[in-house]
Design brief:
27% helix, 29% strand, 5 helices, two-stranded antiparallel ribbon, alpha/beta, 187 residues
Length: 187
Amino acid sequence: MRSVTYSMAVSLDGYVVGPDGSFDWTTPDEEIFRLATDEVRGAGVHLLGRRLYETMLYWEGADQHPSLDFSTREFAALWQALPKVVFSSTLSSVRGRARLASGGLAEEIGRLRAEPGEGDIAIGGATLAAEAAASDLIDEYRARVHPVLLGGGLPFFPRHERRVDLALVESRTLGSGVVYLRHRVVR
């Protein structure tokens, strides 16, 4: 069965965006960019909320910029080829290999798990991931912990007052001081 993974940059105090909605502290260096590229390479489909979908639209045409280096063009090509499901009550259409979700999150994940296919079912966006976590649908958490304290904002981990036991799968410290952590949910 395909795993559902949730991966985001997170501040040391647990937020994916600050109190002002900014995530300018997450600008990736080459090493973090390679890590994100590998995660996209391992995904079979990506589930996104509207805000993250709109942020990631940049990548739908990024490969058209000749000034971009190889790793940036490689990420753009992988992202463009990746099927995406967008959860939004306000969008009426999406671009590229994206489609609007036809059902609820649990229903979509159930359908994707039942379909033949390879690669993870990746979830992007803290709000969408919180919904998946509350329904116990996330199999693996991947956090790129940045050495910054934001003091508030949108939390990486949902606040649903339920214990979730995790097993560490991987950890490494990157040159920029970012710590990459992968934890599997213990079932």
